[in-house]
User: Which sequence fits this backbone?
């Protein structure tokens, strides 16, 4: 238990007032909510970008000409997660223990944001492909990706923690995170479509053909990915650190310690465990589709034309994102009436239905049925919208449950594990795709197609991609539905949790009545 004098906020100003509970800060202003939400330009944009580009970038560009390029790419991605397993929770502890005038999280968000353009330039600029020694090329790709992951960790773990600390009022927190989710939906689409369009145009350039986007040479492709995306991500992240406030009180004398045992601490929180599975399944499924979609449109359904245009990943992702945006107002209304977990799961059967439709869709030149592909993608978007929205709105609620149970506000530990879980999920998704493609000889077929020795990918390649698209989505989304049914935190319970937290932070637990103590114990038992 902490005394009121030990509890401090990270940011002070003349307009702030301090309550008896130790909570102090003015209400969030609109511009602050926008600046905070803008952090998702990097958060969601980075995941979408790498989900589309990374595997294709490694196998078809940097490692092209190297035997078993897919396996080397998979190894690079998987090995980087070993480092993330250390760096993400470690960054959570570091930010928990940081003490500055502007807070615990904001300094690291600013530093990480400033380093983003540098990391992107090192990873994606054209010189990597010019290294003649194949071993050095593999090492360069590995080091570049390690650096990219580390810079992401520096800013994104503290940013994840900030979602629980921008306000002590869960309604105000929900509004801020709603703006964040709008950015997430928009940026997931934009930073999928722009890089995938550049990738497809560059692939067409290599093959001497023309895509629906025309052609893009090597310099144009790398500049789009490395410079444009890197600068946009970096600026958006720095603005979060400059303009956001940290409002939740914490014990300045309490320090977190890093140990591998600390990995298990958040998993002792029942609500957090189910939330983590909801998060991993929803975002992992999207990462999996992102990693697979370029292979799908180039190998499985290349003969399809829509509105007179050649097949492109645009026709998969754009309908998903548009439908997710259309259902956003409905989801927000359902959140207030039915709860966050209901919003998360109600559209997930559509996710499964749409994915199965794409998995069995024929490679046809019949333009009369091509619209069905758009419909399948839009149906997926119904489930995609709620599943992508809710996990980050639920995360702050799990932190309230954790603080009620333990009396400790170590959000960095939880966000570190959450960020790592996302990364490991992305790595697994990309690795599954790469390993399966290696087993069916995708790179050899690609080389023969570029050399005009083959007209199309053989049946074993297209069948493998179809099976991946259908089976993996069904399994992951089914697990997501189950986890959402187990998650029991509601707004009514959060109202009571807030009351008990105010008492706890002020050192007034002894003022609770016997009925209130019993209610508090029941909440901890059910949710913690």
Assistant:
């Amino acid at each position: 238990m902490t005394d009121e004098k030990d509890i401090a906020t990270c940011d002070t100003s003349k307009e702030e007032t301090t309550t008896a509970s130790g909570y102090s800060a003015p209400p969030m202003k609109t511009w602050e909510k926008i600046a905070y939400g803008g952090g998702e330009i990097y958060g969601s944009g980075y995941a979408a970008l790498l989900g589309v580009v990374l595997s294709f970038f490694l196998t078809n560009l940097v490692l092209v000409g190297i035997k078993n390029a897919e396996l080397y790419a998979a190894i690079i991605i998987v090995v980087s997660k070993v480092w993330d397993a250390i760096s993400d929770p470690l960054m959570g502890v570091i930010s928990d223990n940081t003490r500055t005038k502007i807070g615990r999280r904001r300094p690291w968000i600013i530093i990480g944001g400033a380093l983003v353009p540098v990391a992107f330039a090192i990873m994606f600029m054209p010189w990597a492909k010019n290294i003649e020694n194949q071993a050095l090329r593999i090492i360069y790709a590995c080091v570049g990706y390690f650096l990219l992951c580390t810079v992401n960790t520096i800013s994104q773990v503290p940013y994840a923690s900030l979602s629980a600390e921008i306000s002590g009022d869960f309604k105000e927190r929900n509004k801020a995170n709603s703006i964040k989710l709008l950015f997430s939906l928009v940026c997931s689409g934009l930073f999928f479509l722009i890089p995938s369009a550049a990738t497809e145009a560059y692939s067409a350039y290599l093959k001497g053909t023309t895509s629906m986007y025309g052609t893009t040479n090597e310099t144009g492709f790398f500049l789009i990915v490395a410079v444009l995306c890197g600068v946009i991500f970096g600026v958006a992240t720095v603005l979060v650190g400059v303009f956001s406030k940290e409002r939740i009180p914490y014990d300045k004398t309490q320090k977190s310690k890093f140990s591998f045992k600390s990995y298990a601490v958040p998993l002792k929180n029942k609500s957090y465990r189910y939330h983590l599975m909801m998060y991993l399944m929803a975002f992992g499924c999207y990462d999996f589709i992102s990693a697979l979609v370029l292979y799908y449109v180039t190998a499985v359904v290349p003969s399809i034309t829509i509105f007179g245009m050649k097949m492109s990943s645009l026709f998969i992702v754009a309908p998903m994102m548009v439908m997710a945006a259309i259902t956003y107002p409905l989801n927000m209304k359902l959140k207030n009436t039915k709860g966050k977990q209901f919003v998360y799961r109600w559209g997930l059967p559509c996710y499964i239905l749409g994915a199965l439709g794409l998995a069995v869709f024929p490679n046809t030149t019949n333009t009369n049925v091509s619209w069905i592909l758009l419909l399948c993608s839009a149906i997926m978007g119904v489930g995609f919208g709620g599943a992508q929205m809710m996990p980050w709105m639920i995360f702050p609620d799990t932190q309230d449950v954790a603080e009620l149970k333990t009396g400790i506000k170590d959000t960095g530990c939880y966000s570190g594990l959450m960020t790592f879980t996302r990364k490991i999920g992305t790595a697994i998704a990309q690795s599954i795709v790469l390993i399966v493609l290696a087993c069916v000889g995708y790179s050899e077929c690609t080389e023969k197609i570029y050399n005009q020795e083959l007209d199309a990918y053989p049946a074993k390649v297209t069948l493998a991609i179809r099976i991946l698209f259908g089976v993996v989505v069904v399994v992951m989304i089914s697990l997501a539905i189950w986890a959402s049914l187990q998650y029991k935190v509601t707004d009514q319970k959060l109202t009571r949790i807030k009351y008990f937290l105010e008492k706890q932070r002020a050192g007034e637990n002894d003022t609770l009545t016997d009925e209130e103590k019993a209610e508090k114990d029941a909440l901890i038992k059910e949710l913690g």
About this structure: The two ends are 18 Å apart (CA to CA). The first strand starts at residue 7 and ends at 8. The chain is about 70% helix and 0% strand. Confidence is low (pLDDT under 50) at residues 1-23.
